[in-house]
Amino acid sequence: MQTMNYESVEPADDAGHASLEPVLRTGETVDRTADLLKRKILEGSLVPGQRLISRDLVEELGISRGPLREAFRRLAADGLVDLIPNRGAVVRRLSVDEIAHIYQIREALEGYAARRAAQMIDVGDNRARFTEVLERGRRHFTQPDFQAFVVDNRQFHRIIVDMCGNPQLSELIDKYQLPVFMIQLRQRIGVDQIVRNALAEHEAIATGILAGDPDAAAEAMCRHLWHSADELVKLPELKLPGDAV
After folding, report:
1. For residues 151 and 195, is the Cβ–Cβ distance under 8 A?
2. Which residue stretches belong to region Disordered (predicted)?
3. Which residues, other chains included, contact 118 with Cβ-Cβ below 8 Å and sequence gap of 6+?
């Protein structure tokens, strides 16, 4: 049975006994902290190479070091930070080789997801949910907004995985998507054309899924991922020496 955790607050009564004040369960504090830091990384307010100073975060977030360390471990497991001896947590900066390796894994996982989504398109409300996300992304054809597109792009990929009805697959794909979306948020060169190219590739994937054609959906997804990888490795950020602190 799960019990409420308490922290001791130094003494509070005339008898010299320490009082106890209820606080968030440690697990809840870790969840909240990890989610907040993840959002800051994905929004770009914490940038690749930036060191996360424990002392500053403890004060800013009003938490103890234990939950913060566990939050760092979760972010490391998600591929968003590196835990470096004598430096602590640093927002991850992917190398060209790491990006290639991640996309090799994504091709296998998301190619399968697109194939499965095509097979599941008429199950339940899958077609309606998928069409809604697809239509939302189409607004960027005429009014490209890169920050909003990154959010819509992630939703497009996530709905495809969600239609598979496989929570383990969803968790695994999310792990390999997050570091890439983090980098995409930093992309600024040729934004409008990049958005339109991605949207055209989304349309090809959607055509296969909506037609219930697993082969066409999987092939279009793989083409899209490798084109995205090719664009990412050209980013100047990946060629900058040293770490920003």
Report:
1. no
2. 1-24
3. 208, 209, 211, 212, 213, 214, 216, 217, 218
Instruction: State the DSSP code for 18.
Output: P
And the tokens for 198?
Answer: 């991605």
Task: Dump pLDDT digits (tens) for 15-49.
Answer: 433 322 234 456 788 999 999 998 888 766 788 88
Query: Domain containing 119: what range?
Result: 96-239
Q: How does pLDDT run across 74-106, given as a tens digit for each residue?
A: 999 888 899 998 888 998 888 888 888 888 999
Local structure of 209: helix, strand or coil: helix
Q: Is residue 245 part of a domain?
A: no
How far is residue 204's CA from residue 220's CA, in Å, rounded to a whole number?
A: 6
Contacts 24+ apart (CB under 8 A), 173-177: 173/106, 173/109, 173/110, 173/113, 174/78, 175/77, 175/78, 175/79, 176/79, 176/102, 176/105, 176/106, 176/109, 177/106
The C-alpha atoms of residue 49 and residue 106 are separated, in whole angstroms, by 24
Count CA atoms within 13 Å of residue 171 on its CB side. 4
CATH value at residue 168: 1.20.120.530
Q: How far apart are CA 127 and CA 210, in angstroms?
A: 7
Q: What letter represents residue 188's amino acid?
A: R
Residue 244 lies inside a defined structural domain of this protein: no
